[in-house]
Design brief:
Blueprint: H1 22-42, H2 52-72, H3 77-102, H4 111-116, H5 118-128, H6 156-178, H7 186-212, H8 222-237, H9 239-242, H10 246-263, H11 266-287, H12 289-292, H13 300-316, H14 319-322, H15 324-361
Helix pairs in contact: 1-2, 1-11, 1-13, 1-15, 2-6, 2-8, 2-11, 3-5, 3-13, 3-15, 6-7, 6-8, 7-8, 7-11, 10-11, 13-15
Length: about 350
């Protein structure tokens, strides 16, 4: 197996240049999300271009690309699953737990009532299962604040990521079955089918939910974002064919992307944005490397996880109303510090685990 799920005869995993600007792309998208959440939650009069949705879409494209490569380079499905768990859940679980503990200081309830409240345990149960939408609030915390006082409105994307992680092995198997060496047309049929079904979901589901009185959250589930994941996966599967064409495709895709955003036609955006955005992102990651390739350490995931509750705390304290610039800097600085500490925690956690395993084997 050569340390991979598939043998060399079945698949040649592409060799992606290590020198790239993906770190900068992730950081830039994270900062866009953080800034716009602060503007919306803080109710401040600062420019807001509503780009946070596109920034999240970029995260899904990057996941489609890098997680697919990670799967193809794994020795087994179990190894792949463990890598995903290590990457996502330690920091996620700590943020959920810390929010439940530390945000008691923002609750109107006394400690005994807070701890005994069913809302606390529902919050922990729902969020540990990545089902944030089922119970996004803590008892008595952030009441009367924007967006229903949700503790961490950013966590909805985690269940979408996890859903993609679960689906990925089945997609790769289907691609392999239809295209042995990943260069024929069979494999692309699978990705194209995912893309089309995703576009249909995004276009039709809002109408279905409205007509049938279903929860509007259905339109923001995994199928709606498969077109972005599939676009990233296409680069992982067909790297040798697509990478040389990036420079040629960049201009046309950038124009398509800009036109679809400006026209704001839902059906057009759903069909055009995912593949055009993926080309723009990949082009930026590799051809902007001389300018932005200096961002090596990636704290974007930790910052993404913690910034929303941090912003809610700052809003609750009234800092945005008194000094918006200071409030923004405070959210950014505290979020970076928390992300740095989360990284230390994760490294120490796995170092301890490896030590215990080594002692058990001795």
């Amino acid at each position: 197996m050569n340390g991979r799920i598939f043998s060399a005869g079945e698949l040649q995993v592409p060799s992606v240049p290590k020198e790239n600007a993906f770190g900068f792309v992730r950081l830039a998208c994270c900062l866009v999300v953080m800034y716009e959440h602060c503007v919306v939650l803080g109710g401040v009069r600062l420019p807001c271009l509503n780009l946070r949705g596109i920034a999240v879409d970029v995260f899904f494209i990057l996941s489609g690309f890098w997680v697919t490569l990670s799967f193809l380079q794994s020795g087994s499905v179990k190894e792949y699953a463990l890598k995903r768990v290590r990457r996502i859940f330690p920091q996620y679980a700590l943020v959920v737990s810390a929010s439940a503990v530390l945000l008691f200081s923002f609750s109107r309830l006394p400690l005994r009532e807070y701890v005994s409240s069913a809302g606390l345990w529902k919050y922990l149960a729902a969020n540990f299962c990545t089902l944030n939408f089922m119970h996004p609030n803590l008892p008595g915390v952030f009441e009367g604040l924007p967006l229903g006082g949700s503790v961490n409105g950013s966590l909805w994307t985690i269940k979408v990521e996890v859903g993609f992680y679960i689906l990925l092995p089945f997609v790769v198997r289907a691609v392999l079955r239809l295209s042995k060496n990943m260069t024929g047309g069979g494999g692309s049929v699978v990705l194209a089918a995912l893309y089309v079904l995703s576009v249909l979901w995004e276009v039709l589901m809002p109408r279905v939910t409205e007509r049938l009185g279903l929860p509007s959250a259905l339109k923001n589930q995994l199928p709606a974002f498969l077109s972005y994941f599939a676009s990233g996966m296409a680069f992982a599967f067909y790297w040798k064919n697509l990478f040389p064409k990036l420079k040629v495709a960049f201009v046309s895709c950038a124009v398509l992307l800009a036109a679809s955003v400006l026209l704001d036609v839902p059906a057009l955006s759903a069909a055009v944005v995912p593949f055009s955005l993926s080309v723009v992102v990949m082009s930026a990651a590799f051809f902007a490397r001389p300018l932005f390739g200096t961002v090596k350490k990636d704290f974007s995931y930790g910052m993404y996880l913690v910034h929303y509750p941090v912003a809610m705390c700052v809003v609750s304290l009234g800092v945005f109303g008194e000094n918006p610039a200071f409030a923004l800097l405070a959210v950014l600085g505290i979020s970076f510090l928390c992300a740095y500490l989360l990284e230390i925690f994760q490294n120490a956690f796995f170092a301890s685990g490896r030590k215990l395993c080594a002692e058990a084997d001795a």
